[in-house]
Description:
The complex is a heterodimer of chains A (253) and B (233).
Chain A lengths: L4 E12 L2 E12 L3 E5 L6 H7 L10 E9 L2 E2 L7 H7 E4 L10 H11 L5 H14 L3 H4 L12 H14 L4 E5 L7 H14 L4 E5 L3 H7 L2 E6 L2 E7 H6 L4 H7 L5
Parallel strand pairs in A: 3-8, 3-9, 6-7, 7-8
Antiparallel strand pairs in A: 1-2, 1-4, 4-5, 9-10
Chain B lengths: L6 H33 L2 H32 L3 H33 L9 H24 L2 H8 L2 H20 L7 H37 L15
The structure holds adenosine-5'-triphosphate and magnesium ion.
Amino acid sequence: MPEKQKIRVAHVDFFYGERQALYDVSLDFPENRVTALIGPSGCGKSTFLRCLNRMNDLVSSARVKGEILLDGEDINSPRTDVVSLRRRVGMVFQKPNPFPKSVFDNVAYGLRVNGLKKQAALEDAVEQSLRRAAIFEEVKDRLHESALGLSGGQQQRLCIARALAVEPDVLLMDEPASALDPIATQKIEESIHDLKNLLTIIIVTHNMQQAARVSDKTAFFYMGKLIEYDDTGQMFTRPSQKQTEEYITGRFG
Amino acid sequence: MNKKETQLQQQIAVLRTRLLIMCAAVGIAVNEACEALATGNMGRAAAVVDGDAEINGLENEIDALALSILALNQPVAHDLRFVVAALRIVIDLERIGDEAVSIAERALILRGILPLPVGEAVAPLRDAARNLYLKAVDAFREEDAGIALQMCRNDEETSQLEVAALHRVMDYFCRELTDDSTGERLYIGMHGILICRALNRICRRAANIAEQTYFIAQGLNIKHVPTAPQPSA
Lengths: 253, 233
Ligand SMILES: Nc1ncnc2c1ncn2[C@@H]1O[C@H](COP(=O)(O)OP(=O)(O)OP(=O)(O)O)[C@@H](O)[C@H]1O
Ligand SMILES: [Mg+2]
């Protein structure tokens, strides 16, 4: 059975004012798979990731050309509702950014915004999201304490739970584990592994081993261009491009 | 993109050098064992038997080095293929060393009868074993996928050489089974057969090394693949 492509990106150019940050990028993200975006600093990974839920709209000089389809629909079309797009395509950032509220309220926030009011339903949904982010056991006794009292790794998993609560189809993660210790990192990687049954994940990482561990597909960017995109196993044993080989083997710059 | 030599690079260079040293040591053992058999020089045969401990030591050393590179540096792409291939090649090298010892031991057992009356019979197979081994080591050193691939297709030729050599050995000891020297001829013939076996195994192991060279260069496994792919540029 051919894989369903959740997001299709065709010929995307991206500009910050006059400066072009992405050049003719085309690739498809298969559904229920983890795709890693790798490449040296400044190559456009975050820019590209933010194109996928229109976070770049927040930059006034930003301009995008080309086509990005989510389930076949153009996300840049004037008919697209950005709020519902971002609900379908959630995001987790490098630095954990919980709201200065309780653990519970952090996760319940999006649900309440979406109109869920019944306490019992909220409680169920919050617990489920916390479990999916592999943090429920650690916080179940402090759900009503401030989220800011959690460790960095716990805060990051809380942010993943918050993103998951609204049941997105796609989760974008920009270096979600770069500030975490190996155990917290491992927990996040494990939850990524479990989550892919539920959604499609696209993760930016500087950690080659992490990309190799968590992803099914890997895309290598260099200077705003997509250099190589392939199955992760292939990419790390037999990359087809010399630049990819040099980057992943650390012979770069 | 600038290239810089990483710590992993340096470790792989050490691994490669140790492997080449082992290749040379094994090559000398094969050569000396064959020469001892041909000339009856017992000193050379004894040196091969003694030298085996050194080859075994190199095997362990290279094995440990490759393992530590995997554990500490998590190599990928060509680096990963090289380290994995090193772990496999080292096994073939050690076994080729064992075959050389087995030939040298036979030379020692047959002292007094050497040069072996069946020497001519095994000569083509012996030359093939030496040549294939040298070619395998050259291809590995130069990482030459073309030669490696060509060597992997030599299977049939090796089999034919062995069959031909065995036939000649059999001819020798089946000749006039009634005369007085029958016993000795059977004895020599049996050793001749075992020598053929050892030489055949050297040929096969050399082909294994070529397979690994191809894997390093191209990232493709051509073991057990009936029609191997063309090497890409
Ligand atoms: N808001 C912005 N305004 C102008 N230029 C920007 C902006 N954000 C990023 N850029 C530029 O776009 C290019 C790509 O940046 P981007 O953040 O996408 O890279 P990255 O691959 O995510 O790098 P890193 O690995 O360091 O996070 C860089 O040259 C950067 O300077
Ligand atoms: Mg970035």
